[in-house]
């Protein structure tokens, strides 16, 4: 945090505490010299205001919260860059890469609560992950399809999914606009166990170029019509025929039959499954402006045994019969 923002936050917090204390003092004083219980001279709807002091319990409670705030800010972070007398921090705030984060986790001195909790969790559950992901007594990982047959391993993989993947794919793994549904049979890069693992390990970067400049508005409409027709949608036949002629440039990724290419992550256009929406407008927007998608790499975030369990869970979502 820069010095300016540190000072800005400090001034706001300190001024608020002082203001609260001043307000309590001001409300506790008789500034008009009117005795307790005397009429204040105000009346509304037949109700007159009397000069009654603040309840003692209310004043004491307010002072207690102010004192608590001062003590808390002295002991813990809260005033800009001030670290507090305890030097406590919720997590490592200054790390800039995964390597630094791992070093801090390995060498935590107890002031980083997140690191302490993560190390404690690894100590308790690390062996559980290992037993489910590795062959007994070896350093060889179990086959993903074998792990998927173990209900306990699948449950652990599901928890890992909810913790790390549900933000994009949803807790039920059915995805949302721009994020694939993992419960069907449509896989952009292939649904084989090792391919799913490779996706998790290294991530994916998808790029559908924009074609407005090359096609023009008429061309966008024609290519969209043809793309929709590939999945059996009703479109203008003449428009789709013109789009088919233009589709030759799209075939480089999607194939001449429109069935896609896992090598490029190019989707199958014949299955009526649309990553960014299957309405006419959504498809036209895809052709017109292009689409970009990023699946992050998890190899530096999750251990290999967790990746194996997560891969098994994802694989069995689309292969429940196995």
Automatic annotation (TrEMBL):
GO terms for biological process: oxidative phosphorylation; proton transmembrane transport. The chain crosses the membrane at residues 7-26, 57-76. Keywords: Cell inner membrane, Cell membrane, Electron transport, Heme, Hydrogen ion transport, Ion transport, Iron, Membrane, Metal-binding, Oxidoreductase, Repeat, Respiratory chain, Transmembrane, Transmembrane helix, Transport. One of its GO terms (cellular component) is plasma membrane. GO terms for molecular function: electron transfer activity; heme binding; iron ion binding; oxidoreductase activity. Its main location: membrane. Residues 152-231, 238-318 form the Cytochrome c domain. It is found in: Cell inner membrane. It holds the Pfam family FixP_N. SUPFAM superfamilies: Cytochrome c (SSF46626). Its cofactor is heme c. Binds 2 heme C groups per subunit. Heme c 2 binds at residues 208, 250, 253-254. Gene3D superfamilies: 6.10.280.130, Cytochrome c-like domain (1.10.760.10). Heme c 1 binds at residues 165, 168-169, 295. Pathway: Energy metabolism; oxidative phosphorylation. NCBIfam families: ccoP. Belongs to the CcoP / FixP family. C-type cytochrome. Part of the cbb3-type cytochrome c oxidase complex. Component of the cbb3-type cytochrome c oxidase. This is Cbb3-type cytochrome c oxidase subunit. It comes from Enterovibrio norvegicus FF-454. The lineage of its organism: Bacteria, Pseudomonadati, Pseudomonadota, Gammaproteobacteria, Vibrionales.
């Amino acid at each position: 945090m820069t010095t300016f923002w540190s000072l800005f936050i400090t001034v706001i917090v300190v001024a608020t505490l002082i203001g609260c204390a001043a307000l309590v003092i001001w409300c506790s004083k008789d500034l008009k010299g009117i005795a307790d219980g005397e009429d204040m001279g105000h009346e509304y709807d037949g109700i007159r205001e009397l000069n009654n002091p603040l309840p003692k319990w209310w004043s004491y409670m307010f002072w207690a919260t102010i004192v608590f705030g001062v003590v808390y800010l002295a002991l813990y972070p809260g005033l800009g860059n001030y670290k507090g007398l305890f030097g406590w921090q919720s997590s490592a705030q200054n790390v800039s890469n995964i390597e630094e984060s791992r070093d801090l986790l390995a060498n935590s001195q107890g002031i980083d609560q997140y690191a302490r909790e993560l190390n404690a969790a690894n100590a308790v559950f690390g062996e559980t992950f290992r037993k489910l992901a590795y062959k007994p007594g070896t350093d060889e990982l179990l086959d993903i399809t074998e792990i998927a047959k173990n209900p306990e391993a699948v449950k652990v993989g599901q928890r890992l999914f909810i913790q790390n993947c549900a933000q994009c794919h949803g807790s039920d793994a059915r995805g949302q606009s721009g994020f694939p549904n993992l419960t069907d049979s449509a896989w952009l890069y292939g649904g084989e166990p090792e391919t799913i693992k490779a996706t998790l390990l290294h991530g994916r970067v998808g790029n559908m170029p924009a074609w407005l400049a090359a096609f023009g508005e008429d061309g966008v409409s024609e290519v969209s019509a043809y793309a929709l027709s590939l999945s059996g949608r009703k479109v203008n036949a003449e428009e789709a025929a013109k789009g088919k002629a233009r589709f030759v440039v799209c075939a480089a990724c999607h194939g001449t039959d429109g069935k896609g290419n896992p090598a490029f992550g190019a989707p199958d256009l014949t299955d009526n499954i649309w990553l960014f929406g299957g309405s006419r407008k959504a498809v036209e927007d895809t052709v017109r402006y292009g689409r970009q998608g990023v699946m992050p790499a998890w190899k530096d975030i999750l251990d290999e045994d967790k990746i194996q369990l997560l891969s098994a869970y994802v694989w069995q979502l689309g292969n429940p019969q196995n």
